[in-house]
């Protein structure tokens, strides 16, 4: 079974209602702004970060927010500054290439190498949150609480944090 089918099967097992919309490839939040009118709710972006010891953190933020990396580093107890993980690490651990990163890729981290997941508290202001279903040619909406439940099942720790820069 391919990863996307496993993802939707997991949603079904968990009782998570999901809606998926196909669209052209979008590699960045900026390039997907035109989808906002047809996809009401919170559009997310995800970042894979690592500290100097190589510990990985997956961050999913509201697409319009700039994530404060110092705040995230403090919240997750990072050793040193956080930096963006290389694409090869993303592919090895989460099974997706850069431009396709999504919190749903946690389903591919079977050894739970992601130390913690940070969810932006602003995502919880919306009825639905949109993220790629492991590919950037579609977006899938689920309730924010379901996103939290999914992350809790597929990671060691979940932190909800205000990520918008002050």
From TrEMBL:
InterPro entries from the UniProt entry: ProX/PRXD1, YbaK/aa-tRNA-synt-asso_dom_sf, YbaK/aa-tRNA-synth-assoc-dom
All residue ranges annotated as the YbaK/aminoacyl-tRNA synthetase-associated domain in the record: 23-150
Gene3D superfamilies listed in its UniProt record: YbaK/aminoacyl-tRNA synthetase-associated domain
SUPFAM superfamilies xrefs: YbaK/ProRS associated domain
Homology family: Belongs to the PRORSD1 family.
Name this protein carries in UniProt: Prolyl-tRNA synthetase associated domain-containing protein
